[in-house]
Amino acid sequence: MPIRVNLDVMLARRKTASKELAAAIGITAQNLSILKTGKAKAIRFSTLAAICRELDCQPGDVLEYAPGPEPDDSAVADGEG
Amino acid sequence: MTKIQRLSSRLRLLFLAGIGLVPLLHALGWAYFEQVISTPPFSFSPLLGLSWGQPPFMAGAVTPTMKLLGFAASMLPGAATMYSFACLAGLFGRFGKGEMFTAQTVGLLRRLGWAVLATQGLRVLHGSLSTLILTMDNPAGQHMISVGLDSATVSETVTGVVIILASWVMDEARKLKEEQELVI
């Protein structure tokens, strides 16, 4: 995925716990973990805005473009169809 | 959701029972061949592979060997039907647990479609084998083999194709759901 999420770096800089941020921006800790580990396919502007508000940062501090392989969306169960 | 889960759980039990009933019905059909074939309106005749309700000309009585071979032949589509029931039981089991658009449910629906198609192909083969078995003791020149399609075979083939198509649509829904789950 060419978009890297540097949320853990920002959390460390702001000395904020994941659970604390998740509660503050109104998402589950599980979803925040998906975002942190780079498994998320997209991020809503509202979520990004809430993260920036809570961590007092810019979107560019959280997201980074790093050229790499494109994601494979064709996760078909048995290859047919 | 509760309505779907409740009905699905019941259907799962029904299809699980169906898996056991298929060989039993085929066995009974062949064991009591004479009674089944002579009882109007021959509603159980397709079970024996005789879609037209009339047995072919037989010079003698139906022997136990014929019945055994007939049962084996009828278990060709019977086994495919049992597999269809197993797919349905699995599918409704997952629906009962609240699983709707997952790779497993899509896979089960797709396998069900192929099983329905296979059943129809095997049904045609079963019909031919049945006439061959029932006329195997006839004198030379009076052995018979028939190949035929009835309206049920045609309509169920269409059903199989529709199920496969529905599984493709369901797979698209699964992809959308998975993508939606990864939008934070």
Describe, in short, the structure shown.
The complex is a heterodimer of chains A (81) and B (184). With 81 residues, chain A is mainly α.
Topology:
The complex is a heterodimer of chains A (81) and B (184).
Chain A (H helix, E strand, L loop, with lengths): L2 E3 L1 H7 L4 H8 L3 H8 L8 H11 L3 H4 E3 L16
Antiparallel strand pairs in A: 1-2
Helix pairs in contact in A: 2-3
Chain B lengths: L1 H30 L1 H6 L25 H33 L6 H32 L16 H31 L3
Helix pairs in contact in B: 1-3, 3-4, 4-5
Multimerization status: heterodimer
Termini separation of chain B: 24 Å
Helical coverage of chain B, percent range: over 70%
Mean of pLDDT of chain B: 88
CATH architecture descriptor text of chain A: Orthogonal Bundle
Count of spatially separate domains of chain A: 1
Q: Please tell me what the overall shape of chain B is.
A: elongated
Radius of gyration of chain B: 20 Å
Unreliable spans of chain A are 74-81
Q: State the major sheet of chain A.
A: 2 strands, antiparallel
Any low-confidence stretches of chain B, pLDDT <50, length ≥5?
none
Structural class of chain A: mainly alpha
Q: Fraction of residues of chain A in helices? A: 40-55%
* CATH homologous superfamily grouping of chain A: lambda repressor-like DNA-binding domains
Give the N-terminus to C-terminus distance of chain A in angstroms. Answer: 25 Å
Compute the CA-based radius of gyration of chain A: 14 Å
